[in-house]
Amino acid sequence: MSEEPTTDMPTKYDPTAVEAGRYQTWLDQDLFKPSGDKKAKPYSIVIPPPNVTGKLHLGHAWDTTLQDIIIRQKRMQGFDTLWLPGMDHAGIATQAKVEAKLREQGISRYDLGREKFIQQVWDWKDEYASIIKQQWAKMGLSLDYSRERFTMDDGLSDAVKKVFVDLYNKGLIYRGEYIINWDPQARTALSDIEVIHKDDKGAFYRVKYPFADKDYTFNGKHYIEIATTRPETMMGDTAVAVNPSDDRYKELVGKKVILPLAEREIPIIADAYVDPEFGTGMVKITPAHDPNDFKVGNRHDLKRINTMNDDASMNANAGKYEGMDRFEARKAMVKDLEDQDLMIKIDPIVHSVGHSERTGVQVEARLSTQWFVKMKPLAEQALKNQKTDNKVEFVPDRFEDTFNQWMENVHDWVISRQLWWGHRIPAWYNKTTGETYVGVDGPKDPENWEQDPDVLDTWFSSALWPFSTMGWPNTDAEDFKRYFPTDTLVTGYDIIFFWVSRMMFQSLEFTGKRPFKHVLLHGLIRDEQGRKMSKSLGNGIDPMDVIEKYGADALRWFLSNGSTAGQDVRFSYTKMDAAWNFINKIWNASRYVIMNLGTMDKPELPAASDWTLADKWILSRLNATVKQVTTTFDKFDFGEAGRALYNFIWNDFCDWYIEMSKEVLTGDDAQAKANTQNVLAYVLDQILRLLHPIMPFVTEKIWLSMPHVGESLVVAAYPVDHPEFDDETAESDMASLIELITAVRSIRAEANAKMSSAVDLLIKTDNTRLQAVFKANEDYIQRFAHPKTLSIGADVVAPKLAMTQVISDAEVYIPLAELVDLDEEVKKLEKEQAKFESEVARATKKLGNERFVANAPEDVVNSEKEKLADNQTKLAALKQRLVDIKAEA
User: Fold this and answer.
1) Are strands 759-764 and 569-570 parallel, antiparallel or unpaired?
2) Closest Cα to residue 589, out of 672, 674, 656?
3) In terms of C-beta density within 10 A (0-12 exposed, 13-18 middle, 19 or more buried), how is residue 883 classed?
4) How do beta strands 223-228 and 569-570 pair?
5) Cβ contact 421:455 at 8 Å
6) Residue 888 has pLDDT above 80, yes or no
7) Are 174 and 374 in contact (CB under 8 A)?
8) Is pLDDT at 853 greater than 60 in this prediction?
9) Does residue 271 have a pLDDT over 70?
10) Which of 398, 393, 559, 400 lies closest to 487, judged by CA?
11) Listed residue (25, 19, 91, 97) closest to 55, CA to CA
12) Number of C-beta neighbours around residue 481 at 10 A
């Protein structure tokens, strides 16, 4: 034994005392590493690497709790388990945090220069990586830290370079000038899924574009009307377009108009992109500032005029507005258009505008030279694999449709970012010829080449996480051969596009295998009102604060029982109180058992021939629970598993078996006492093993306090199915006893009689089996029902005045005089009679009022009628009861 059993357990569960030092002990014992047993089946999970941007939130706690539950159970079931930890450098997100910190000091990354700035980011990473690891420890995560990885480790960086170079050589990575999403604060490109659309207040500005030919008129006007929401981009207009099939404007095609404020002539062209039904059916074309206009411009060989700098200030192409911020320029241009009588009308609108996911600023569509991944062939490969036996199983399976739809409609992925923090793109440009060189190693004559200053999108490296962490591209690496593909990925449904899909196509492309067999997708954690947790609402909850108050086990219990897979969950302090109460119940039940085990060395079940009905029943219920929990765990239905555990532990074990054991433990039969001690200890041991993956700290503490074999529950055997425990007869017999005892308690409660007072108890049943069960277990009936006299049989005559409960195949009677003072009861019932008579009179009067019946809503009238009928029934029953009691008295 690693720790000596003790009966010295406090009367109340104290999570702080229970958890203190336990995690470090597990680490010191090396319990979280793979077993190394080559005969054991491997089972692996890679942690979704948290960003080193800050502390972990409740969503991380939920995500990692589910993973820990899975890996702890598999470890106990004898699998050779690996749970690999690590963190993500989170390019744009981390750089944004560090830049914000520098801004507070009045400096920018450009003041520091690339090298010194990157050192600042590494310092940030070290600080937050340390905090994250402390949080992992607080939550009890059984991670193998000897294999911890970071997305910018040398090994992972080698994998990133190889993937980039291989895709480039296959023609699946290319460089080109396109319209991309641009974050003007971070000054970098963004992929489509890093853009969040929000409703903003804006306007439709209706502007006159005069004809170049001053004598030409159309519909009696010397101008055409063009509507725009973004006048600040007007200086980049190179055409006006109409639909070729729009008969209204056929004569205009080929004419020229003057671009307002720029005094530049631009043509009117015809292009099918224009929707004749939208607005006037005429649109301005700005190829450098709109993705659709970019395509139109390509078809018509239009010039691309970029009017903005990378910080969204206006450049020289904006003429007199150069140097202005984009929104200042908008105001200035609108004023100038109004002053020059070129503004027809301004209509306020609310429209959907893209914002950067990381910095929150409004995104610009910007013409830029970037690196892209050609997605079609990679997406097709992933879609094809989902039709094979080697597919990734989505849990819940509805998310496979989400994945398929995205892959079927995927756009090329812009992977370059104009950042300094991240994996530098392995491309160099010849200083003389401009030639491009792409390679894992730089050119042999580096003095003649300049490396691309951009870095890769964070998701480019995270997409390789399941195999790059295992030693790939070295396919002979031991971990890669043994633990890849991984078994289960646990993550939020909100990053199917960002991460899950990218891991899937990159893994298939580079390893020929799926990255994981299952992907378990959970929802978001919301506040008690169902709102998303956010800084702006101030409703975020720090998991460490919750642990401080309730303990890690209570938080883990709540998170594992929170909801079904794929659903959001509401955090609730009421539920946290319930979780703590459940653990306190387990603690006190365990304390009672341990204090009553005597000098036992280890729990050993007595021979089956010595089992009482209660023993047979609890072992059968235990076995049913083991099977249900194992089955539901395999389906990742932790909520259902939690319900099974809760019902068995609270109801069957604590409320019934422990209570039934007390009679034996305080009795004189030494053999019966020893048998009961062993059954109690065995069942408690199995309960602790079942619970350990969910609440590791408290189960370990209790298990080490009781007689046990082994050093830790972490590596103890998980409970298995024992068919010899299954006993339908015992379950049925005990269910009948419980139903009987519950019925008696219910009668006492209804009559407001003390539970301990002795009463005459009559049980009428012609079921001979039931008669035998009740007679054979009179000791339990005596203990829990306190009968003064007990009559069981088919010939039992019901007393005239008795409280009755009907149970399965039997009727239970207790004479009323046994329960109450009849004179007092008459007074009480007469009081109640008066109350019901008043209610009946009130409702009768109300329903007799024709105006009320005619004018009140139908449901209100019906409700009143139902109340009247119910109260009339109750009043009639009360009157009859009074007649009977008075006759008896």
Assistant:
1) unpaired
2) 656
3) exposed
4) unpaired
5) yes
6) no
7) yes
8) yes
9) yes
10) 393
11) 97
12) 13
Distance CA(635)–CA(645), nearest Å, equals 16
DSSP strands (E only) in 396-446: 413-414, 416-417, 427-430, 436-438
How does DSSP classify residue 320?
A: G
Element (H, E) at 20: none
- Gap between the Cα atoms of 91 and 191, Å rounded: 13
> How many other β-carbons are positioned within 10 Å of the β-carbon of residue 302?
22
The two three-digit tokens of residue 627, written as one number: 């099977």
- Tokens 């422990």 belong to residue: 658
Angle at 212 between CA 209 and CA 213, to 5 degrees: 125
Q: Which of 260, 198, 211 is nearest to 233 (CA)?
A: 260
Residue 536: band (very low, low, confident or very high) from pLDDT cuts 50, 70, 90? low
Crossing angle (nearest 10°) for helices 543-550 and 552-561? 120
Q: Residue 562: its pLDDT value, please?
A: 67
Q: Which residues sit opposite 759 in a β-bridge?
A: 787
The alpha carbon dihedral of 702, 708, 714, 716 has a sign of negative
User: Lowest-pLDDT range, 128-132, 514-518, 645-649, 743-747?
Assistant: 743-747
3-state SS class at 430 = strand
Tokens of 865: 């009628």
Output the average pLDDT for the chain.
91
Cis peptide before 5 (omega within 30 of 0): no
Closest CA to 765 of 734, 817, 701, 808: 808
Binned at pLDDT 50, 70 and 90, residue 563 comes out as: low
3-state SS track over 554-583: HHHHHHHHCCCCCCCEECCHHHHHHHHHHH
Residue 1: predicted pLDDT:
38
Please tell me whether the peptide bond between 473 and the residue prior to it is cis, using omega within 30 degrees of 0. Answer: yes
Q: How far apart are CA 286 and CA 179, in angstroms?
A: 11
Q: Quickly tell me which residue has 């409702």 as its tokens.
A: 843
Q: Which residue's entry shows tokens 């080109």?
A: 176
Assign 3-state DSSP to the chain and report helix, strand, coil percentages, each to 5.
50, 20, 30
How far apart are the C-alpha atoms of 297 and 436, rounded to whole Å? Answer: 27
Specify which residues 373 forms β-bridges with: 173, 413
- 435-450 mean pLDDT: 95
Q: Report the C-alpha gap between 763 and 795 in whole angstroms.
A: 10
| Structure-block tokens of residue 753 | 């009689």
Give me the sign of the Cα torsion angle 412, 415, 418, 424. Answer: negative
Tracing tokens 């009074």 back to the chain, one arrives at: 882
Task: Decide if 501 contacts 533 (C-beta within 8 A).
Answer: no
CB-side exposure of 168: number of CA atoms within 13 Å?
17
